[in-house]
Design goal:
about 150 residues, alpha+beta, four-stranded mixed beta sheet, 5 helices, 4 strands
């Protein structure tokens, strides 16, 4: 996240309602507003990382303890059934990943361009992923590992 004080509480509340037992990790990229103070009591772990989508996603993935990672923009409200939907999709042996379709309103564009993410580890969902799977995200500008 980066300067998401206006949206972060709603996002974290929706995540917790949809996945009460999930490990919620917030990765801050250097917020100068009240984002950190708002997020800290609503997540399990709050860490700092260099600003940027790839840096923040990699930091969150490294800090996670589960088998399934869900990356969510800090201003995204997930559907109430998101955790069950993911568990259902991953119950198919051929499925190892996926995404949700999103709808954007005009206020979402600045956050989308900044690449602000949270990491949610759904430890309660046993994955069909190899235990030694490595999560590496490339910086979209340089195509290099962040």
């Amino acid at each position: 996240m980066l300067n998401e004080a206006a949206a972060i509480a709603s996002t974290l509340d929706a995540l917790r309602r949809g996945a009460p037992d999930a490990e919620i990790i917030v990765v801050d990229g250097g917020s100068t507003d009240a984002s950190v103070a708002i997020a800290r009591p609503l997540c399990d772990t709050l860490i700092n990382a260099s600003r940027g989508r790839a840096h923040q996603m990699n930091a969150g993935a490294r800090a996670s303890h589960g088998d399934i990672l869900v990356f969510v923009h800090a201003d995204t409200i997930v559907p109430p059934t998101f955790a069950a939907d993911i568990a259902s999709a991953l119950s198919v042996p051929a499925v190892v990943g996926g995404r949700f379709d999103v709808e954007l309103d005009a206020s979402a564009l600045p956050s989308l361009l900044q690449g602000i993410f949270l990491v949610i580890t759904l430890g309660v969902l046993v994955a069909n992923l190899a235990a030694d799977f490595v999560y590496v995200f490339l910086d979209p500008r340089t195509r290099q590992e962040a």
